[in-house]
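Exercise: predict the structure of this protein bound to fe (ii) ion.
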Amino acid sequence: MRAWKLEIPPGADIRQPHAKPGGDEVSLVELNALGVLYQYFAPSDYDKSGTETHARWLQFRSDHGFKYADVLEVSPEQLPDFESKLQMFFEEHIHADPEVRYVTAGSGYFDVRDESDSWIRIAVEPGDMLVLPAGIYHRFTVDSSNYIRAVRLFADEPQWVPINRTSAERHPARLAYEQLYPERSFSTEPEQQALRV
Ligand SMILES: CSCCC(=O)/C(O)=C/O
Ligand SMILES: [Fe+2]
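Solution:
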């Protein structure tokens, strides 16, 4: 996993890295401060009983109450309506529950908004597990490989319910997210870079 400040020029291919010129890499500590969690599980072992990785995987799921899992493959061959699904994934949104994605093959980018409403791009590859907290503004795209396979973890029956930003500002999950990180001061408008007081 690597993360950096993002700047996509208008009309550019979203599947390219687009590191902001002169922008710094973003550390795990900075991601943690936004509520984004990361763990590595060796992909060859996470589902192999008897391995230390599998034991850690089960422990993580049990500690956080993720009873359900499914596997999503995002590629032109595996996902019907690939391009339109990709557009939906790249529409800025929140969820009412944490988004947990463990990458077992391929690669891609999760973009999250920081406290000043700037984008941070998080590149994931096999072994990377990301937890995006409920209420964080985010989006997803495959990278130029056009392929990712991810295990998705859920507390309840698997379902994917995005709440697009245009209707998310007063959503309880968004308000709770802003309350959870009171030391960060979230701006309310994408264009508004000044911090709210
Ligand atoms: C590889 S996960 C697919 C995208 C998704 O589920 C999501 O919610 C992105 O934000
Ligand atoms: Fe999402």
